[in-house]
Amino acid sequence: MSVPTTLTSPVRSLAGVTLPAPGAWAIDPGHADVAFVGRHMVFTKVRGRFVDVSGTVTIAEDPRDSALEVVIGMASVESGLNARDEHLRSAELFDVENYPTATFRSRSVDWHGTSGTVDGDLTIHGVTRRVPLAVTYEGYAKDPWGGERAVFSASTSVNREDFGLTWNMALEAGGLLVSKEISIEISVETVLQR
């Protein structure tokens, strides 16, 4: 992967679309949202998010040669209810004492225009599984302090039991207290590193 040493513009036109220029774009933890949605008692959607998110998007000359690496502090989970957050952090679920971080490391990128699929290794609770992220480049902005920002969104869905997160309770009327299928929604601002 080649990254230029001098950069004249933080964006470029490639195949008729505007994309970030090659280089390392660091995730801004203050403007990173990694959220998840699961079902409670079959019907109700419960949302949560992680606020400790860091990493780097390395954009290559050919977008298909780009790379993504993200680290999530699992203890930073917030779901709007302290008792639920403590349960999520406990040994029954995330077990943050033994598994303080989750990671995502890209393995391949299939990119067309302003969107694509980033396949990578997602590690949660000490278990690694290959997961595809549907990624979209949302745009570019220069911040008031001179930083060059590229914004990305992504989504995927995982079965939490694939990562050893198997705690659950059967409901009297049938079904499970917490869904196995979890949707993940991501929005991040990245800052070009010079």
Automatic annotation (TrEMBL):
It holds the Pfam family YceI. It comes from the Bacteria. SUPFAM superfamilies: YceI-like. Residues 24-191 form the Lipid/polyisoprenoid-binding YceI-like domain. PANTHER family: PROTEIN YCEI (PTHR34406). Belongs to the UPF0312 family. This is YceI family protein. It comes from Motilibacter deserti.
